[in-house]
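DATA SHEET
Item: assembly model
Revision: 1
Owner: S.N.
Input lines:
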Amino acid sequence: MSDLNELIKQVNWEKSEIVPVIVQNVDGEVLTLAYMNEEALRKTLETGYAHYYSRSQKRIRMKGEVSGNVQKVKEIKIDCDSDALLLIVEQVGVACHTGNRSCFYRKLGEPEREVGGIDYSLTVLRELEEVI
Amino acid sequence: MSDLNELIKQVNWEKSEIVPVIVQNVDGEVLTLAYMNEEALRKTLETGYAHYYSRSQKRIRMKGEVSGNVQKVKEIKIDCDSDALLLIVEQVGVACHTGNRSCFYRKLGEPEREVGGIDYSLTVLRELEEVI
């Protein structure tokens, strides 16, 4: 089962061409929910760095490609239905384009929170570029 | 912001009527990926126990309603795009219908694994009923 194609085939792509991916830091913090198609999973397995499928841009991006906030993949788990993945990663920098470490930085009911106010630094603009 | 309707309105339901929900145990273990619509979130907030929208059954179920494997909700977080939720729960029993604690019990590449072989106990049948 070590062959790359065999690994990729474990996901039930017939059910959905794009599957949700829970991204959890090695310290246990849930960082974000992302999506992968077959090619994104292949690139992730080949490189060891998380690649996601952007549903809005309809293309694959390596996480942190521009900003440097990459995710080194330590483990990939698949759920009982074979239609969702859990990536355990080492997050470099922050995962969220807002500058927060995790995209889940707000409790339901809490207002929006900017990290250190509005930040026009190059890093943030690059993060924004990735999101847009 | 303590009003229930205000909490529910924080989710961007216009983008999608059903949002993915990452379910994490208080000890940090990611248990499952589920889905909620507005009503499921309302019932979760009202009762303090996780309710999900079953996409296959097209109806709302309280997690563990039949099996007793309920999830007491400790915290609800919303992501930066307001289109995904993270529930921190106290899991009673197991989260997965296979009998495993987490639905993410397999590494990508590992074969299927039954907990203690095929189990025809009432608990498992009740879990199966929830899934079907």
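QC remark: The helical segments of chain A are 4-9, 38-47, 122-131.
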